[in-house]
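Sorry to interrupt, but I need a hand with the structure work. It will help me judge whether the discrete encoding reads sensibly. Write everything out right here, beneath this request:
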Amino acid sequence: MIILEQAIRNLETFLLVAHPKTRHKIAFWGHGKNYTVARSGIEEKLKATLTNTGVWFFGYTQGGVDATVSSGYPGGQTTAVYNATDTSELRSQMASITEDELRQSGESLGLNGPTALYIGGLDEAKRIPFLLSAARMMHEKIPNFSLIIAGAGSSQSTVEDSADKFAYIKYVGNTFGREKAKLFQIADILMVPGRVGLVAVESAAAGVPIVTTKWPLHAPEFEYLTPQMDCLVSEDDVESYARTASDLLGDKQALSNLQDNCAELGKGLTIERMVEQFAHGVLSAVHMR
């Protein structure tokens, strides 16, 4: 069996599907539908037609599997792998960080109040200007509020300029390992107004809830989250977003509930579960053939 990306722009895929020696051995792995970009109906139909030639479909999430089945693919020939990352190290590092380390990190960053964290790529899909505008409004409402931003990308200079101008913006660059774990320990919430993808898995693993927006281009992993249960989703405008995040930081009980629910969600979003799902799907597909 050959497992290929569910992508219509990979020309070698069509060659494999057409070749008599391989066409009955193809399986596909993919989103199941277009989440993060708008596609034409023709492209969607072509992707469905291509996927229907495969003997099995592996979807990132159950939502992607359901979308593939609704396009005519046999439901009994699918697996939702529950796409995840290996968060064991993150959880282990967070557990090992002492109160003294957290205090020192907080002092070095100049933190003295409610703290939000953005961690990830600093690119257009993450809506960094939107994030910075919301942080300004939140600081006006909560004077001791701070936003830590970790990452790199095309919007990095915008973040650096804001950090130079405003003391409540703390830009720390790309952060990994134990330093990254400290940021998750320090943060009360994650602010991700743009695309939510695998950060949902880290949010759950760390027990730090995401505040995001009703943006239509979230990645498949956003489906793991349940609004009001382990995340908050505001209307898609800066004022609503800033108000939602500010209100949460001011409600200790609501914040604690979301944090607890995040940690519970994280127990099921693991690389081990993903591997088990994938292995089960491979064996099912091979036995079917």
The beta strands are 2-5, 26-30, 56-59, 78-80, 115-119, 146-150, 169-173, 189-191, 210-213, 231-234. The mean pLDDT is 95. The longest helix spans residues 271-288. The longest strand covers residues 26-30.
